[in-house]
Amino acid sequence: MFKWFGKVNYTPYTKVTDFARYLKNGHFMGSRCKHCGARSFPPRADCEVCMSGDFEYVEVSGRATVNTFTKIVAAPTGFEDVAPYSVGVVDLEEGGRALAWFGESIPEQDIAIGMKVQIVPQIFEELEDIKVYYSLEQPGTTWSRAPGHS
Ligand SMILES: [Zn+2]
Prior knowledge:
Layout: H1 5-8, E1 11-12, H2 18-24, E2 29-33, E3 39-40, E4 55-59, E5 63-72, E6 85-92, E7 97-102, E8 116-126, E9 129-137
Parallel strand pairs: 7-9
Antiparallel strand pairs: 1-9, 2-3, 2-4, 5-6, 5-8, 6-7, 8-9
This protein binds zinc ion.
Zinc ion (ZN) binds next to loops.
């Protein structure tokens, strides 16, 4: 059901491939700059505050609040079959922001700015390329590892 996600909304993690390894082990990570302490999500190898390349991973809960959302009615070519669908920008409890698609656990009519959601990460690996997307689900939704991996 989610196979189309990876085509249109993914974050390539070329410098932070450990992120995917953590995800596969059930840990959802942001990053923290070892130099100035700035936290970032998605994780960044280079600090956006002080430009230091020295960072460490810190686990995030995935709890987030909807900042804004939009309903995609006129889908791009290739996605007509799945439109309409809704995407949201959410603020993570620990800081940072993510763009994600609303999952099946949240009916469209329930979507509202300020609502609490749980970000559920999914990863795809294509050869050397690792792609991650996020779906938004009801608070308390649990996950252990991306589906399709054992
Ligand atoms: Zn920094």
